[in-house]
Write a structure and sequence with these properties.
The chain is of the alpha+beta class. It contains 26 helices and 19 strands.
Amino acid sequence: MNETIENATKENRLKYEKSPYLLQHAENPIHWNSWGEEAFHTAIVEDKPVFLSIGYSTCHWCHVMGRESFEDEEVARVLNRGFVSIKVDREERPDVDGVYMAACQALTGSGGWPLTILMTPDQKPFWAGTYLPPRSGGGRLGLVELLEEIERLWQSDRSRLLELGQQAARELGRREAHSGAQPDRALLRQAASRLRQDFDRENGGFGGAPKFPSPHTLLFLLDRTRREGDLGSLEMAETTLVQMARGGIFDQLNGGFCRYSTDDRWQVPHFEKMLYDNALLSCAYLEAYAQTGRPYYRETACRTLDYALRELRLPGGGFACGQDADSGGEEGKFYLLTRTDVEEVLGVGEAAAFCHRFAVAGTESVPHLLEDSRYETAWREHGEQCRRLAAFRRHRTALHRDDKVVVSWNAMMISALAKAYRVLGEVRYLRAAESARLFLKTRLARPDGRLYLRWRDREAAVEGQLDDYAFYCWALLELYEANFSTSCLREAVKLADKMEELFWDGEGGGFFRTAADGERLIVRQKEVWDSGVPSGNAAAALALVRLAQLTAESRFRARAGEQLNWLAGELRRYPAGGCFALLAMAEALYPVRELVCASSGSAPAWLAGAGEAYRLTVLAKTAENSRGLARLAPYTESVPIPDAGEKLYLCRDGACLPPADGPGDLRRRLAEDPVASSFS
């Protein structure tokens, strides 16, 4: 063991990893370790503090710190002498990132990536920060000076550092006691009211720069519009959706959204593109199109999904995490165009009109449509030119793609693709969703029902966490209502049961981020608030509510009720911070009907759109699937299959009305029924 420890401290061990982020640092002169028991045992044996650096491979400032500090020989000398250094890919280990980001926010009031933590060998943080240059200057602390001071304190005043670590650990472990509450519509009204206060009426979005798309917020506002006829919520959602699609945050040439805007009008983006943003934003634009019929939303959704299919989809059907902000060592270089570039590709005549419309100047510019009053026709009129310029960019320089497959993020894309099929009827989106589901099922699901978190280079690794189970369960239900395959419903039921077994807090309510038998960190987190992605607890609530609706099973209804009560108690302080959880609450608080289509053949093609059009949960019963469906949703056993054609049964809580004879009869009944009319 001692020989292993000595070797671990005298080499950079990241070369043995699969993570693209860790491999980016495999040639650093620092003796990096990956997160694990061996590294912390080394710190104990060698009596050294731990230097923890967390980032991801498409992060601009992670690249900057990597070049400036982690390739610096003096930084390496100090780290190798006095510290055990650990690198973590936040996308592989969201649990580690979540704990130490919370520590950074507690210690400094802010956070971000790269995340820099100094801690004791028993994982208790005593210093936290983000980007650090190699040396002090311009009023900014340098990494060398920080490390040398910590090294001195570790030898001369260690008790002070240990006490800081104890205090941070106590703070992280402290949970405010919130009693559960009954979900009610007042929480939804309060959230909408707060969003109105923060809304930027001119540019869309909420608050000032930097501005994040926050698709879960937009989905909540659109849901509120659908259920309450709230035109104020629709205005906030539409203004934001339009201005984002016009701005530079949307790649006008190739489609897809960048991570966020550095200004308040969506013009200049932070250029990395993430799978989860593009998946959830696609859902928002599709919902806006379903409600308004406005072609601009359909076009934006399709260009976003087509970007993901073209640039992020991997062989086998899974989706990569994202694309880099940097190219050629410069942030955004890939995306910037000059008038000269456009003239080179299009010729002087075509270039003049294009540059005027897309605001391309003589200097490097991010194409956008914020100055164009006819923006809704720009892509149709200049589509071929956009494609030629996109090809020019790809030929000029390449973007790094992080090709890890993360279960929770792929699940979000499956949900978006399934919704695209239901709203638009385009089969290619359904096929892509089914292919991605097969990728997860065959590569990341274990025979015992558990999930791995990530797959790369023919290896599945890292125990799945709450987000993976919750979002995948939700995605399977979204996909079921597109293809009506009982295998999707069956897999969702099994995942929900496994999620409860592994993550449910039987004492305090809610779901923990990590499994009961998983690795023990200094705190076992339980997330409530939405961040860049919705919280796993919100996704779990939505999946459970949908399962209760589809199956009418009492165990899902009971667990969904407990989860919503817990979330309502947690969100009372600031309901606008949990908009995805509010979607789940709305599903439970507003009238809902199930539609069972009993068909003598296969499910009719129009059925996939019925749920979107009328706000129904939809099941399809055929002679082929009737036995399996009855095991999952027992109330369907009594629904007869006609000798020919289809019969449509409107049901509520497992009780069904006499059947409708077709879509026209169904529409009439929905219009006449006071309970169901809110879905028409």
